[in-house]
Every structure is written in C-alpha cells, then in structure tokens.
Predict the structure of Acyl-CoA carboxylase subunit beta.
Amino acid sequence: MHGKHALENYQKQMEQIQAEEEIKKDKQRHKGKYSARERVEMLLDPDSWTEFQQFASGSLSDKTLVNDGVIIGVGTIDGRKVCVFSQDFTVAGGSLGEIHAKKISWLMDLAADMNVPLIGLNDSGGARIQEGISALEGYGQIFERNVKYSGVIPQISVILGPCAGGAVYSPALTDFVLMVEKSSQMFITGPKVVKAMSGVAIEAEALGGAYMHASQSGNAHLTAISEEEAFKKVRKLIALWTPQTHHIKAPQKTSLINLLPAHHKKSYDMHTVISSIIDEDSFLEIHEKFARNLIVGFARLNGRCIGIVANNPKVMAGCIDLDASDKCARFIRFCDAFEHPILVLEDVSGFMPGLQQEQAGLIRHGAKIIYAFAEASVPKITVIIRKAYGGAFVALNSKAIGADFVYAWPGSEVSVMGPEGAAAILYSDQSQKSKEEKMNEYRDQFADSRHAAQKALIDEIIHPDDTRKRLIMSFSLIQSKKRSILKKKHGNMPL
Ligand code: HXC
C-alpha cells in the first residue's frame, strides 16, 4: 500500500492515537493526575515537543499496548534542549515491558549523544509481570545507561504515581528525584505485594510517600504539592544551570552586621545569609526536608550558577551527622561533575557526638565529605561565618583539602576544638577563674580567626557586607581554573 491509501491509513492511526488520548486523560483525571502527554506539554516550552517511536507497541494477551506504556521525545526548557520520557499508567499500569525498555534506552543514548539533560516522568508499577524476565533484562539495560551516563548528562526523575520495583531503582541512580505530595509513592514492593507476602496491611503513602522519602529516607531531593508545581521546579532547576547575562538582580540591601545573634550560642537561620549574598530569588534548595542541619542548593551569583553548602545553626546547632554527610557529599559530586563552582558558608561546631551516630557509621559517612571536597576540581570558596571547629573545619572545604579561597567574618572562630572542652583542659589549674572567663581567654588566645589568618589558613577577614562583592570577584578570578587530575581508573570513595 502506498500513495493516497497509505496516507489515509497513517492519518487514521494518528486520529486513533488522538481519540485514545481523551480516554487516557479521563482515566488519569479520575486519580487526580495528568496524562503522559499532558505532562510533557506542561513541562516543556510550548510547541517544542518532538515525539519518536509513537508506533512502537507491545501486547498483552490479545490486547495491543499502545506505545507500550511510554512516550519518548525531545523538547526545550527555557530554550535549552532536553530529552524526556513519560510513562503512561493507563497502559498496564505504566509497567515496563521489552519495547518500553527499548524506547527508554534509545532515548538515553540519544540524550548522551546530544549532551542534554534526561528527564524521566515516572508513573509505573515496575517490571511487567506478564513479560517476566524480558522486563528484568529491560531494567538492566536502563540501569546500565543510568550509570554509564552518570556525570555525563544530568538525569532527573519526576515521580508522578505509585512507582514500584525497577521503577524506583532507576530513579535512585539518577541525580535528582522529585516527588509529588500525596499522589506519588516509591517502594521496592507495593502494598498489595507486601500484604500478600507478609500479611501486613500498609498504606501506600506511609510505605513510600513523598513526605517519608523527603524527610526520612532521603530518596526524594525535591517535593511539590501538585504536578504543576513539580514541572515548575524542574524548569527552574534546568534554567538555573544555564548562565544568565541579563536581568541580574542583586539581593535587597540588608546589612549583615546585625545578623548574628549577640550571644555565640544563640541560633539563627543560615537561609538569611544565603539570600543576602546571592542574586535575588535565585535559590533552589535540594533535600530541603532531609538533614536540615545542612543546607544545599543551587543559586545564581551575578548570573552564574553556583552550588551552595551551608551549615544551619538553627537545626541541631548545625552539627554534621550521618544524613548531612551523605547529603553534602552527593551534592558536591554533582556540582563537580557538571562544573558548578561551590560556595561553603560555614558555622559548625563539629561532627555529631554520641553512641548512636558512631554505631551507625559516622566515621564512614563523614569521610565522604572529605573525599568529595578533596576530589572536586571546580572553583571552591569557603566563608567562615561564625565558627569552624576541629575535623569539621578541615572537612568542609579548608585550604588544606583544596579550597581556592577561604574567607572569615570578623570575630569568627577557627580552632582545634570548641572553647568548652579546650578551656577545661588548658586552664584546669586556674580554679579562681569562672568557666566563662576561661572560655573567653581561650577564644582570644587561640580561637579567634585572626590567628588562622596569621597562619595564612584564611585568605582574608572580610566585612560581612562585602561578602557578595568579594565572592563575585573571587569566583571570576578562578573561573577558568584547571587542575590536573592524577590518572587512575577511579578512586574508592567510602560509601
Ligand atoms: C503488570 C501491572 C503491574 C505490573 C500494575 N499493573 N503493576 N501490570 N505488571 N508490575 C496493572 C494492574 O494489573 C492494573 O491493570 C493496572 O496496572 C493498574 O493497577 P492497580 O493495581 O489497579 O492500580 P493501583 O491500585 O493504583 O496500584 C498501583 C500499584 C500496584 C501500587 C503500582 O498495581 C502494584 O502494587 N503493582 C505491583 C508493584 C510491584 O510490586 N512491582 C514490582 C514488579 S517486579 P488493569 O488491567 O486492572 O487496569 C520489579 C523488579 C525489577 O519491578 C527489579 C529490577 C532490579
């Protein structure tokens, strides 16, 4: 068949896809969700979507599985090209069969060849049970590409429904996972399988909802209250990575001098420091609800994207624990892989002391921070805001492990340990002095950052209100930094 008939046939097939689209929308709407195509349209710039392999399909019993449950294509976000796959829950629960996997794998190869980010819109019950081991093989092919392209192209997973099995392992291998509150879940096995295997009835939301993964397991880096907000956040993430040369807005002028509380033990929110340094409204926090004692996120500084790592004295006095270590190391490694300079805002009394943390492996986890900073070859700058004690001072981007510049605010403290412990040991024989007097003496004699500046461990003590200006200048000095890296297959990072 060719000519007019072929064209008519083609048009009929296209019309059928259109007609089915309306049914799909209805089915998804019933669950408070959008269809696979609607999602793509909401995510991308208008009219920028080009779809591939629309006619690739699978089958189940005697039923044809249109698209085999996934659509794939290329579009733009703020004019920047991206590759997107979007799983269709209305086709066998978005489960992954042989063709489904083949389409995603092909798209991943295309994204790597094009050198553009890959965004997966996930809504899938995992390996298609009826396709058995062919489905497992399909996941294996996707995982292999997740790993092969890790550090080559950014990979983002958006979870938009109840995702199970392989449908969560692949996102776990990507750089960022975003979940929608109340409508998306991630679990290795869903509630029905858990019930069948163990007899335990558990709600999907408790087993793997957005709140649990964002605040406890750390599997979700970002959350949104709706699909609309989810796509906005992905667009912001992609846009942030692209340098901006116009409409750069400095933060509102507020003096940082009075920002720190009068008493050195009083807490304050480091977010205020961040927003008074970066371009206005440019911060996108990653892992906002997880390990809140440490803040990480992307922002613009004079139009350029930087990754920010900052202690937050407001939560657990900003101490570094297991989860904060993992969160920090993973973020640094993303920044380094994709050439985003790193800024550290430091106010830390140390690693979290205690039996529970030691038993759970604080040494192993904390070592990841040292490894990640020492390994990162992007421009790296630290500003010590109030204090940097002991191992945490060394680990959090000190000059010794490779910071390009370290600055400190006046009156900040850098010392081998906190004044409480040190003063008790050093001045134990001066019983006539109060604890407070001893600590003040220690502060003045050893801990004030001017001692670190004298030893050239700090490159300058800067006026708080000059921080933004100094950082813009410093990052521009080292913009084209090149460090030769020892040739090796790869290091062996503590995990
Ligand atoms: C085939 C599936 C499926 C699957 C869902 N469906 N999951 N079909 N294989 N894995 C189908 C259902 O049969 C149903 O078809 C439709 O999708 C919608 O599913 P429901 O159960 O009605 O929806 P809901 O109540 O919303 O529950 C969604 C769900 C649940 C939580 C995802 O379906 C579920 O628990 N599925 C199994 C999840 C799971 O344990 N997967 C692990 C697979 S093994 P009809 O025709 O009725 O509409 C795996 C291993 C990979 O992935 C390991 C790699 C290392």
Remarks:
- The longest strand covers residues 380-389.
- The pocket of hexanoyl-coenzyme A is lined by residues 92-93, 95, 125-129, 136, 139, 162, 164-166, 169, 189-190, 192-193 (CB under 6 Å).
- The chain has a mean pLDDT of 94.
